[in-house]
Every structure is written in structure tokens, then in C-alpha cells.
Design goal:
The longest helix has 12 residues, at 45-56. By secondary structure, the chain is an alpha/beta fold. The radius of gyration is 14 Å and the shape is globular. The strands form three sheets. A five-stranded mixed beta sheet has the order 5-4-3-8-9. Helix content is 29%, strand content 28%.
């Protein structure tokens, strides 16, 4: 899997369609911290648990002047159903072309039960107010992850 940007490097710009309509662009978020959590598939158990945890903590992230955005390769329509079904409050963005996912180093070959396929590796990226990579979590385990990210945001 190709590596994404390193800590201290500029975060790759993006403008992606969002589940709520419109577009989410990194350029529009300059001056604030941004958490991007990349998840493999809307509606699966781990992705649902992660999205609910980030939504539950949205007020605490907002108090820390931090935007939280969930990103997957699911269609905008699938993202919208996912958000509605689980009452998600954090914005969800769709990258069906995989270009932004590749730029962040999260799209690549995966293996499950000996089968190889292309997909998203569960990863979270913290971007500082200047638009640089501040921290990267790879091989994310869902339990307690959103809380750990919030703690890191508060410390940064």
C-alpha cells in the first residue's frame, strides 16, 4: 500500500461530495483542526460503531475547534442511508474514484481469509489548522479510538 503524507507535510487537498448534499473541501476548513476517519464500508459493524462514537463526541470535538469527517468509497446515497439509519451527526464524504483515498495512502490491496482485494484500511488522520498532517493512526481498532483521537486533539 502506498504511504500517505508524513507528519508535518501538507495534507492533500480534496473536495468530495457529502451525504448531506453539497461538498466538503479541505480548503474550506483551514484555520481549524480536522479529523478524517477513513472507514471501509458503511453499515458494517466496525464502521457503524466507529461512526457512532465520533458522532457521540461531536460536541467535544467542536469545543476543541475540530471538524470531524468520515470518508469511505461508498456512494453518497449509501452514505446518506448510513447516516440516517444510525443518527450520525458528523459529515460523511464519498470518494468513489479513490483518488483522495490514494493520496492519503489508505486505498490499496487488502487480504481477508486469503482473498486479495482493493479497499480502505481503517485509518484516522489529524490535520492541524495550517493544513499539515499532525498525527496518523493506522491499523485502527474501533473500541476507544474516537476517545483517543479526542484526547490527542485536546493535547495538540
Amino acid at each position: 500500500m502506498p504511504a500517505g503524507p508524513a507528519i508535518g507535510e501538507p495534507a492533500p487537498d480534496f473536495a468530495l461530495p457529502s451525504a448531506g448534499g453539497g461538498q466538503i473541501a479541505l480548503a474550506d476548513l483551514r484555520g481549524r483542526k480536522v479529523v478524517l476517519y477513513f472507514y471501509p464500508k458503511a453499515g458494517t459493524p466496525g464502521c457503524t460503531q466507529e461512526a457512532i462514537a465520533f458522532s457521540r463526541l461531536k460536541p467535544q470535538f467542536a469545543a476543541a475547534a475540530t471538524e470531524v469527517i468520515g470518508i469511505s468509497a461508498d456512494s453518497v446515497k449509501a452514505q446518506g442511508r448510513f447516516a440516517a439509519r444510525h443518527g450520525l451527526t458528523t459529515p460523511l464524504a464519498s470518494d468513489e474514484t479513490h483518488a483522495m483515498l490514494a493520496a492519503y495512502g489508505v486505498w490499496g490491496e487488502k487480504t481477508l481469509f486469503g482473498r486479495r482485494y482493493m479497499g480502505i484500511r481503517r485509518t484516522t488522520v489529524l490535520i492541524d489548522p495550517a493544513g499539515r498532517i499532525a498525527r496518523v493512526w493506522t491499523h485502527v481498532k474501533v473500541d476507544g479510538h474516537a476517545e483517543a483521537v479526542l484526547e490527542a486533539v485536546r493535547e495538540s
